[in-house]
Amino acid sequence: xxxxxxxxxxxxxxxxxxxxxxxxxxxxxxxxxxxxxxxxxxxxxxxxxxxxxxxxxxxxxxxxxxxxxxxxxxxxxxxxxxxxxxxxxxxxxxxxxxxxxxxxxxxxxxxxxxxxxxxxxxxxxxxxxxxxxxxxxxxxxxxxxxxxxxxxxxxxxxxxxxxxxxxxxxxxxxxxxxxxxxxxxxxxxxxxxxxxxxxxxxxxxxxxxxxxxxxxxxxxxxxxxxxxxxxxxxxxxxxxxxxxxxxxxxxxxxxxxxxxxxxxxxxxxxxxxxxxxxxxxxxxxxxxxxxxxxxxxxxxxxxxxxxxxxxxxxxxxxxxxxxxxxxxxxxxxxxxxxxxxxxxxxxxxxxxxxxxxxxxxxxxxxxxxxxxxxxxxxxxxxxxxxxxxxxxxxxxxxxxxxxxxxxxxxxxxxxxxxxxxxxxxxxxxxxxxxxxxxxxxxxxxxxxxxxxxxxxxxxxxxxxxxxxxxxxxxxxxxxxxxxxxxxxxxxxxxxxxxxxxxxxxxxxxxxxxxxxxxxxxxxxxxxxxxxxxxxxxxxxxxxxxxxxxxxxxxxxxxxxxxxxxxxxxxxxxxxxxxxxxxxxxxxxxxxxxxxxxxxxxxxxxxxxxxxxxxxxxxxxxxxxxxxxxxxxxxxxxxxxxxxxxxxxxxxxxxxxxxxxxxxxxxxxxxxxxxxxxxxxxxxxxxxxxxxxxxxxxxxxxxxxxxxxxxxxxxxxxxxxxxxxxxxxxxxxxxxxxxxxxxxxxxxxxxxxxxxxxxxxxxxxxxxxxxxxxxxxxxxxxxxxxxxxxxxxxxxxxxxxxxxxxxxxxxxxxxxxxxxxxxxxxxxxxxxxxxxxxxxxxxxxxxxxxxxxxxxxxxxxxxxxxxxxxxxxxxxxxxxxxxxxxxxxxxxxxxxxxxxxxxxxxxxxx
Length: 909
Ligand code: ADP
Ligand code: MG
Known about the structure:
This protein has 909 residues and is an alpha+beta fold.
């Protein structure tokens, strides 16, 4: 509870004045003509704002104080004193005595007579004489409070005084007989109703009586124990159990007051007490919406854009005016003379004495204010030391007989003047009304929705019905037209039948004679139809058969699909075999091509030799053999050929041959030379052999120790060895051994060249391969290479190439198996060594030999380890003769062993 001294603008009071003599101010009581003015001014300012309105309260009003902050405005409890006129009894009884009080209203002072010569002076906020009108009392005491309530503050107007001094007169007069008698309650309500808007504001009233700490509802007498509820936060008290009647006009309020008064009377009769023993409380709740904050029902017009605005709760100010007609302040006789027990007396006085104690405590700034001691103080906690604007009117009578009570009343009023309140605006957001408004809005929307839904459903129903009608009409139309059509066709049909019958009848009548014929025609037709039918039937049967056939074929196909698959596999295998065969054949072809090459090579040589017809300069060829013989014959000049031929004719071949065995060495040499010369001519060769010349030459090789004879004889044998028959002859007569032996003893490279040439020729014979090798032919050839003469080497190379060619052919034909005999006899190192010999005749033969050897897988390993593969690769890349290059390439690529080796060596091929 706020309390303490304030900045009072009205009335210097306090006890300091007590006992002072103010005779100068002892003037006759008069009505202050200014008293009504401040109230009017205050009213005009009330709409400006609570604080400013309060600040501008005039000195004549009970309102006032200075605004400090928003938390509240100091507002002291204002106290007025009212003196009742003498009543009839007093006029008589006190006629000889002076009044106990003397008023100085203009000074707002009251003098209380102590005795005939002494008075105490008291100052009040207002001093109202016995002549003060009800209107003036209202304006001075209550009006500022009412205005505060209308501005949103709580307000209290209370009357305190001895019974019979006019509390009820001041507060509760209804003024039914005389308008001027209307008391504060009636006038306050008049002002309130005049100020509020019945549309946006509300005024409601409760009327209660407090007796012996029991709160009774004067508007509903059955409700006789109403509890007080305090809001712990705001400290506001409320009486939820009390009847709250909304007031919309003055008349209904007056009725309510009357009703309350009647109930109060009845209740007091029932309780066997007087109204003076109870406190009456009128509570007026004024709720006002603050203009400018109220959305003014816009949302209720269905304006949805204002929904957000409408969700803002309206701001309201709630003022509560409490008018309290207290019980008589006189002390109840504790002796029980009035029929009360002591306990009852205590209880009756409890609230009032508690009020006195609280006011004392507040006046003295005591730390403890015993508000909770009684129901009255609990109810009035806001009125004294709280946030309400409070105006107290103390009523006194003039009779000196009641001087003591009057003095006590005055003292009560004096203390009350010290109580300081802190006025607070009761402004809040009205969530309830917002909720109500939203409820209304919601209800409207629900209604609207329902209406729309209904309209929608009706529309759907209508459309459905329409559709239904249309459907049934369409169905009807359809059925009708169907029926019409049916009837029409039936009619047509019947008519056609009728017409046909008529026609038939007519025909029968007309063509009676033709009937038989007609019948026949009909029979023909039937037959035709039957034929067609049977044809159709057979066709159908055929089709059925076909279908069955296809079905079984399909089944067959499915069965054969599996076998077809295996067939495919088989075929694939066959295909692979074919591919293998093809590869093999290709190998053979390449080999044949190489043989052809060899043959063409040899043919070339032969041709060259024949073309030259004399000693050539090219070493290594057979022509050179002849050249060795010729010089001896050239002695007779150009006629040489002719002379030999002449000799041949004159002497005869037998004679010449016999000379080969002559005693004389020179003769033998000459003879050999002659035979050799003859053997160089192809035409003579057969004759020489037939005459035993070859045998003689061979014998000579073995028997003679003369190197010239050896050389010339070997040359002759070499020439004769070009013929296949001669080759066999040479072999059968141990030619290889003789030639080998000759080679072994020879010192002249030309001798070796002749011997090597002879063996090389023999090497070209397919049939003699094994025998030749078996008799050391290959070894003999290889033995001659150590002389190093290129002519000899060329012959050796030719022999090896010939041998390799024949071997290759034999292998391809299957008559030879196993690796090459050349390799067996150790020819490979020399072959490899001379594969890139600078002399092209040597190199060519060796290249060919390598190609032949390479064509057979059986030789591959030896060739790889002997380094021949490297040579083969080189040949395939660098050989200047394209045919040999191609042969080498094909040979390489058709050998899996070579390819594997190349891959291993990471040689790209
Ligand atoms: P209280 O309520 O204090 O007991 P009342 O209001 O009942 O006193 O007044 C007692 C009597 O005095 C009533 O008959 C009333 O009409 C009369 N009375 C009181 N005050 C005045 C007044 N100011 N002028 C004329 N009559 C008065
Ligand atoms: Mg009364």
